[in-house]
Amino acid sequence: MATEPDTRGHAGREFFATRTVAEALAGFRPARRTPAETIPITDALHRIPAAPVTAAHPLPGFARSTVDGYAVRAADTYGVSEGLPGYLDVAGAVRMGAAADVAVSPGTAVAMPTGGMLPPGADAVVMVEYTAEAMSGTIEVVRPVAPGDGVIRADEDAAPGAAIVPAGRPLRAQDLGMLAAAGTTSVTVHARPVVTVFSTGDEVVPPDTAALMPGQVRDATAVALAALISEAGGDPVPGGIVADDPGLLEAALRAALDGSDLIVVSAGSSVGARDETAAAVGRLGEPGIWCHGLAIKPGKPTLLAECAGVPVIGLPGNPRSALVVFRLVGMPLVRLVGGCTQPPAAATVRARLDRDLASATGRLDVVQVRLSGSCASPVFGMSALLSVLTAADGYVIVPEEATGLDAGTEVEVTLYR
After folding, report:
1. What are 53-62's pLDDT values in tens digits?
2. pTM for the model
């Protein structure tokens, strides 16, 4: 990792430096990457290539027409116009899916379908709209063409040895089409990161608990985190609910190290519970805790660590705080461990705030908003309330240096998809 944690001892406790979100994204860079595996391209959508894929031969492989029309020598069309058409003899026609069996010589043309192979001697294709049959076997041409017009070169999609799919970028539908066009039916990709998710707290019970006892809450965070992990390309694995006992938590985390590429802990909301989580994580292995606290609202009590080669994220216990900070910091870590160096761009829109937003300098504020046309309306509520997130269409970030944003300010809204 790029930097060591800044720590100081006080009254038997260890305090770790609070980092900005930008520092966390730039500085917390665990070295762990998932291994490579080879899969069919039919299963490769959104997977991350472990190495560039190159073209074994030129693509499309032969010069072809991009329009319906006539293959010609461009020089035979120079100077033609509506008022002074040129005349060419039709020497034959090219059939789709077959090599051209007729050549273009001076003063001749060959009928072409879109996608047909350019015949020898031709260097352009004139669109059928700019021709007319003057008499049987002869066409008139009313618009000139330049060499290359209406034609795709044999290597215009890709030259031999050129990268057709880069490493580190999630494969899209068009990438899979390019691989298929090149005759590549399998691709070597990074394995999906195995992300083990733990919830902690004596009050937390499974979602299928029919009747809650006083003080109990169903575990909503783990289900939502699993969805975000899947969205980031990971394979979420439930670690279960661990009671507020540092010994039990340490044992559960230690047991998960061998089978995990990343561990996520949704910690209790109290200061004591957060301290217990930090203590348990700190004993798992070197280099240990990188930061315990992010300058963000909501989500300040976030822990980042690397233990025995496995990144560990400790999240706040409040569901909204946990999901906000995991979207900003956790999902990039899942992608990083999974070999993604070119993450997909977030969907955003521009809108204007319909009210003032207060903020404090030195922290990044993440404000949920509802969209109505070109207006963004902030949605407020306590950090424990998931309804704030479910009511929002996206979020606005108030940067660390700002003291707030005025009503009418144009903002970028990152959309939930």
Report:
1. 999 999 999 9
2. 0.88
